[in-house]
Amino acid sequence: MKDFYLEIKHIDKNSKARYGILHTPHGDVEVPMFMPVGTLATVKTLSPEEVKSLGSGVILANTYHLSLRPGEDIVQKAGGLHKFMNYDGPILTDSGGFQVFSLQKNRKITEEGVIFRSHLNGDKLFFTPESVIEIEEKLGADIIMSFDECIPYPAKEKYAKESVERTLRWAKRGLEAHKREDQALFGIVQGGEFPELRKHCAEELAKMDFPGYSIGGTSIGEPKDVFSKMVDYSVDYLPVDKPRYLMGVGSIDYILEGIEKGVDMFDCVLPTRIARHGALMTSKGRVNIRDAKWKEDFSPLDDECDCYTCKNYTKAYLRHLYVADEAFGKRLLSIHNVRFLIKMMEEARKAIQEDRFLEFKEETLRKYNSKRGF
Question: Which residue among 145, 149, 210, 222 sits deepest, i.e. has the most Cβ atoms within 10 Å of its Cβ?
């Protein structure tokens, strides 16, 4: 599709980190980037206007959950996700492949697709590569994902191999079913911790010539060294000129690791989820706002942050809102965490352009490791 492509502007001289512009039908965004997650067509507690003001490029929404409520037909009648949720920037929808992993107690995998039991009411659902594409086309996001199987960690190599082959067959079926020319369909690399399976999956997907590629099956409980190898085993065999998306990764160390290896896109519910539990990412390390020591601290949450929360409110006030279980507090904490990660990506992009990404990574991690970081 002519309206979707990655323009690589610079590659860091000392790593594989790359800076570029991702062109989409709903605007151009800089990469590497972090995508806030709006599972049900909303980033929890935040308005689309607030998310946009934080510097967000792409917002992610969840195909499985939106198919259950309000249903893809209603979203389509509203004019698609952009009009339905009033977000004029690019939107990405996943395929439900993660739910194959997360809802494994309520699903059955067959060659044709996956039978689910709705987590809401127990109704029987049947997702196939073709039906998922149909749902995603009705939702109308700029970037959509192939249906795949995200296997658990650890998994036996025999099962992982069978899963990869099925994921490849599903990717081909989804590609053949995809008709909308204004949507970019990504293939998803699976293969667990096994290098030959990751290589095989990436190479076979590359032959199918998707507009972009995702790396799946990571950050699901595996040790960090295994995560790092999984990414290596995948990235090295993907096309250089296509966007690379590392799915479900939102911790500072994992994001920076991914950028160093040449990944362009990241998403996770982490910043908003931990914010609702009082945990904040700051330039001085992790802050638990519920701690009593902040009760009379009238300084900003983070004096290096430019977000609305840090410009206008103190740690004492934020702690008061959290302890009182006020919804406004959850909003303010979420605003900070989302902006913090987006700002980190802005700084990473600048470091890449100046060929100092590794120094930036080391300095950033040093700050967070001084206290228990994320």
Answer: 145
Nearest to 136 by CA among 78, 63, 71: 63
Report the C-alpha gap between 164 and 159 in whole angstroms.
9
- Which residue of the set 12, 94, 142, 264 is catalytic? 94
State pLDDT tens for residues 219-258: 999 999 999 999 999 999 999 999 999 999 999 999 999 9
Cα–Cα dist 259/348, whole Å: 9
Is 232 in the active site?
A: no
Place of tokens 């795949």: 148
Element (H, E) at 109: strand 107-109
306 catalytic residue (yes or no): no
What is the per-residue pLDDT across 294-310, written as a single tens digit (0 to 9) for each? Answer: 999 999 999 999 999 99
Q: Is 114 helix (H, G, I), strand (E, B) or coil?
A: strand
Residue type for position 232: D
CB distance 249 to 270 below 8 Å: no
What is the value of pTM for the model shown? 0.96
Contact in structure between 79 and 367 (CB atoms under 8 Å): no
Residue spans of alpha helices (H) in the chain: 48-53, 63-68, 72-77, 81-84, 97-102, 129-139, 157-177, 195-207, 224-235, 252-260, 270-275, 308-312, 315-323, 327-353, 357-369
Active-site position among 12, 148, 264, 267 = 267
